[in-house]
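User: For my dataset I need records formatted as: sequence, then structure tokens, nothing else. Please produce one.
Assistant:
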Amino acid sequence: MTRIAIESAAGTVGELLAEGVHRLREALGSDANGTPQLDAELLLAAALRVPRARLRSHPEQRPAAEAARRFGELLERRAAGEPLAYLLGRKGFWTLELAVSPAVLVPRPETELLIERALALGPAAHGRAADLGTGSGAIALALASERPAWQIVATDVSAQALALARDNAAAAGLARIDFRQGSWCEALPAGAFDLLVSNPPYIGADDPALEALGHEPRLALSPGPDALACLREIIRCAPRHLAPAGWLLLEHGAAQGPSVAGELAQRGFVTVRTHRDLAGRERMTEGQWPAIR
């Protein structure tokens, strides 16, 4: 790819923005991840260290050479497919603004379906919930922000991810979340939970989609050749940590709903239901552990 080099001689803020949109449109196209106008605006605002609205209110200004150089570097990385959230160091999720890094997945809007279902199924007041594989802490923090009386545990095998999640919790004033390092259920403390929620890796190692996500941590995307491996492990271990009538909520791939529902039913879960995201794709499946066994 040709290196993008933009200098102050390129012109005004308005001209820099137009050039950035043009270059990103060429690189990203018009697919689901291609938002060249928005991306260019956010990257230019970050490079200039000004609010995005200022780009339109002062398009005639000429930025310093260093700021123009920063913009060119950010454009180059975005054109190469690096997620916008990594370039900006942040991503909005639910009602929160989260710090993100290449140590964690970028939180996605479809995962908010897990939050909606957890709030619908969990206790109205006091309850106990765990987020397995918390990454940036997105799910755990969203639940904590909506249910202040809940006791919430968040686990992750990655020490880097947990450090970032703790920082996000502190920044949001949600420091009461109990962060624990370990794989899936093994890090959970004693006692029964009303809810276990997870967005685990579910992309098979041979899935072409994995290549398009190459900038994000592979450990958080793929369990290997068996795309359902992590989902099966969570379904296997969850009942030991669920209260009677407790719920397990799992995000999964758009074609995996029937398989996940089958695994839940075979393990002994009841009231198994699959829900679609706003794009109409089967995105998550829930199951209830029986009150009486």
